[in-house]
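Lab notes, practical 5.
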Amino acid sequence: MTKISVGEMLKRPYGITSEKFGHVESAEVLLEAGFKGIQVRCERSTPTRRIMEIADRVADLAEPWGALVIVNNDVMAARDSKADGVHLGQEDARVETANLILKNKIIGVSVSTPAQAMTAQNEGATYLSAGLAYNSRTKPCGDVIGPGGIRNIKRFTNLPVIAIGGIRLWGLTEMHGTGIDSVAVMSDIYEALDPVGRAKEIERAWRELRRA
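Output from the prediction step:
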C-alpha cells in the first residue's frame, strides 16, 4: 500500500510504542486500531543498531497499512532504517542538522513553549508535539503546560501540532478544543485490559471529534 502523507497521518491519533509492552506488540495493537503514525520510542541507552532492527520490524508491519514510522531521538537510526523519519527532543540534534542527514525524511520536534515552536518551524521541522498536556507516567519529571499552553503554542506556528503527555480517552474533547491536529496516546492503551479495544475507542472518538 502507498504510504500516506503527514497530513493524513495526523487525522488519526499518533501512537507511541512501549518498551515494557513490546515495540512490535505495540505496533500491532496500534495498526489494528487504525493508527497511521507510530513512533518507536526506545530507551536512550538502546544501541543504534538495535533501534534500527526494531524500526525495520515495525516498518514491515506498517507497510500494508500505509502507516508512517518515526524513530525517537536517534537520527542515524532513522537514516539507516526503513523508518520514515525521526522525532527530536530539545536536547537532541538540531533540526537543521537532522535535515542534512535525513534529506527528505520527516522530522518531528517536541516543544513546550511558543519560542521553541517557532525555532523548530524556522529550522525546517515537519510537525511538532506539544506538552505535557497532563501529568504523565512515562515522563514523570516533565513540565505540565496544560491545554492552555498547548493552545498558545498552536497560535504561534503553522506546523501541525500533536498534543502529548498523559492524554487519555476522557481528555480528547478538551484537547480537540485547543485547535491541535492530533493527540499522542500511550499509557491509556497499554494499561487497558483490552489494549486493542481501548485503542479503537480512542481512534474512533478522535475521528468523530474532527468531523464535528
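Observations recorded by the TA: Residues 59 and 142 are 29 Å apart (CA to CA). The mean pLDDT is 96.
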